[in-house]
Amino acid sequence: MTLPKTVTSGESHHGWLIAADIGGTFTDVIALGPHANVVPVKVLSTPPDFGTGVIDGALDALSEAGALPGDVEGVLHATTVATNAILERQGAKTAVVTTKGFKDVLEIGRLRRPLLYDLSWKKPVPLVRRRDRHELEQRIASDGTVLTAVDTFELEALAQQLVDDGIEAVAVCLINSHILPEEERLVANKLRKLLPSVYVTASVDISPEQGEFERTSTAAVNSYVGPVVHSYVTELSRNLHDHQIDAPFSIMQSSGGLLDAQSVAEKPVQIIESGPAAGVIAVQKLAQLLGLDNVVAFDMGGTTAKASLIENGRPFVASDYEVGGGMNITRSMGKGAGYTIRVPSIDIAEVGAGGGSVINVDSAGAMHVGPQSAGSRPGPACYGQGGERPTLTDANVVLGYLNPESIAGGRVQIAPELAVKALAQVADQVSKDAGDTARGAYQIAVSNMTSAVKAVTSERGRDPRDSVMVAFGGAGPLYGAALARELGIETVIVPVHTGVFSSLGLLVADTEYQVVAPYTASLRNIAALAEQFEYLGSEVLDRLSKSEATSVTVERLLDMRYKGQRFELRIPMPDGSIDDDLIAATFARFHAEHLKTYGRSSGDELIEIVNLRVRGSITNPVSIDQALAIPLTESDAPTSRVCRFESDIDTPIIRRTHLTTEPMDGPLVVEDMDSTTLVPPGASARLDKFNNIVISWNSNEEAQ
Q1: Fewer CB near the last or first residue (10 Å), C or N of the chain?
Q2: In 457-561, which residue ranges form alpha helices assigned H by DSSP?
Q3: How far apart are CA 168 and CA 226, in angstroms?
Q4: CB 418 within 8 A of CB 384
């Protein structure tokens, strides 16, 4: 029996949708009305109660739209609450329950070092203390045979010990439980009954794959952030209700699909990269609209800069990644610095370079940018909220790139004299004036961010010069053209609503649910392969059928590798009944992807299937052109101010509406409500039919 590819039902929305993305400095909100009315709003984030910023932004957007809270029919959200809990180590007091002899799996890991020659590097401290890791006299063999069954009395004694220790969350990860998940679920369910107030995770319900370290780490992270996420989701849902916003509430997953809030609370590890994923989905939808195959998505906000590659219209989705170790990465190179999470995630490289990144000088007199950030409180010095450390935003004010009076549609006032004062601290240490210091910081930031783009392109065997860049986020358009020039990318697109583009991604993202299972049958056992895919597909359709769907699409994927390899490649299986020809076509796809990624392939080596995956998605009725193809209002006449490049240049300051389809030579500064775009000397900018700014480099001129 073949899985149905598409099931259709339901209708598009008729009320207002609210999309909110929480960043380190700003909370970005977009309200989308039933007739493509779009109202973007940026408000300062409100740590530690980030939900307040979501409510404030939603109410402001509805007020500007002339709509009422009762008109809202859906709330879509991307949040950093899970990530912050890990980075700030503010998660629940967690215990791990495992098989005897495997207490130290979290420390042992995969014996990887992210920096081979850095002798000062220290392994991250596990989220679960060793004293809170408990072993059971239980064992499952590699073939699924129960060698030693779970002892009920041992579990009861363990539960009492966990109570005495004040444990708030438990991760259960038994060895070989992916072969026999019932044994691990038995332990987890027993602990749930004995400890009704404790958050319990069974690793097979989060990551039912081989690899005891990855399963243990993923389950530990899920339990560590579980109570925090559950509390946040519950509180935000209640606050929305208190403000008369009674609408379905969905949250972006790291894989790029939306999921209902209740499912997220059950598996919060799925939303670690929630915000960045929303931005990539917005770029994917834009690329499809513009007919672009290969696109580098570059997102720079207040705290970090992120890069992702969309190839042939699809973003890369990795099976595991790390968080909390500097640059978040999903590939093998550089791993070992953070906490491993094995759940599907869009392949995003992230570095600590954002508008709020602090500029400092080390003991050798070298200037650095980030990864420390001033955040939203106190924020950059120029915000006048008590911040004294110089940041990239302060540097951009000194350079003349940012409006010296206000940004974010006038919501944030700028004090340029405070930016100069803050930069003077660094200027004195490097014996330069404030302008040269600011320009140096700008160039250092560009250099830092090239590593993120290379991580998702050249380190994957892809040439960034074959792609177009889409720059977005509050600070992305200030750096996109310079970064593209550094990488040899000729064209940069700055979309409408660029400063709140991740929120726009929430509006157009599909609802998604994915399941995975290890594959242990013979490679040529077609009946077993078809039967397992059928079972997984039924589970996906059952979960998604609970939603009002306009279209449910089911996709089959396989994690494959040459026999003896450690890492797998995820290969989509063609549609159709599973037979010898379909298997051969899938193998051909694997060989081609291996050649592209690693530079070699071999038709003589044996291939093995490690996991089967089925991904189901509900097509979103909202198309991205509804948010982009909007009339632009009239603006004031162009002005000018001095901006520093290699030299000081009197630079036109314009609005997006001043651009036409005819290219306008740089330097230019284009000011939008939610972001500022810099067109350097040697580049030109024009407007396309969707009001996107298209920046092109003149190959005969050098950037200044």
Answers
A1: N
A2: 476-487, 501-508, 526-544
A3: 10
A4: yes
The domains of the chain are located at 1-78+273-510+620-704, 89-229, 511-618
The CA dihedral of 654, 660, 662, 665, to the nearest 10 degrees, is: 10
Spell out the SS3 assignment of 142-164.
Answer: CCCCEEECCCHHHHHHHHHHHHH
Name residue 311's beta-bridge partners: 314
Which phi and psi angles does 338 have, rounded to 5°? Answer: -130, -160
Q: What is the pLDDT of residue 557?
A: 92
- Domain at 511-618: CATH code: 3.30.1490
Using a 10 angstrom Cβ sphere, with 0-12 exposed, 13-18 middle and 19 or more buried, the burial of residue 13 is middle
Q: Please tell me the predicted confidence (pLDDT) of residue 400.
A: 94
CA distance 186 to 155: 11
Q: How far is Cα 221 from Cα 241, in angstroms, rounded to an integer?
A: 30
CA distance 184 to 702: 62
Q: How buried is 577 (Cβ within 10 angstroms: 0-12 exposed, 13-18 middle, 19+ buried)?
A: exposed
**Three-class SS state of 487:** helix
- CA-wise closest residue to 57 among 33, 83, 31: 31
The token pair at 428 is 């004195």
Q: What is the pLDDT of residue 364?
A: 85
What's the rounded Cα separation, in Å, for the pair 526 and 534?
12
Contact of 247 with 75, CB cutoff 8 Å? yes
| Per-residue buried b or exposed e for 616-642, using 16+ beta carbons within 10 Å of the residue's own CB | bbbebebbbebbbeeeeeeeeeeeeee
Q: Which of 92, 42, 32, 43 has the alpha carbon at shortest distance from 65?
A: 32
Are 46 and 58 a contacting pair, CB within 8 Å?
no
* The two structure tokens encoding residue 475: 């600070």
First to last CA, the chain: 62
- The answer to whether 174 and 138 have CB atoms below 8 angstroms apart is yes
pLDDT confidence of residue 330 = 46
Q: How many C-beta neighbours within 10 Å does residue 606 have?
A: 10
Structure tokens at 125: 């401290």
How is domain 89-229 classified at the architecture level of CATH?
Answer: 3-Layer(aba) Sandwich (3.40)
- Residue tagged 């570059």 (tokens): 298
pLDDT the model gives residue 326: 53
Closest CA to 268 of 129, 171, 180, 181: 171
String of DSSP letters for 170-185: EEEE-TTTTT-HHHHH
Q: What are phi and psi of 208, to 5 degrees?
A: -80, 60
Residue 660: Cβ-neighbour burial (10 angstroms; 0-12, 13-18, 19+): exposed
Ranges of the chain with pLDDT below 50? 1-12, 327-333, 701-704
* pLDDT score for 465: 93
Q: What type of residue is 326?
A: G
Distance of alpha carbon 645 from alpha carbon 435, whole angstroms: 10
Peptide bond into 667 cis (omega under 30): yes
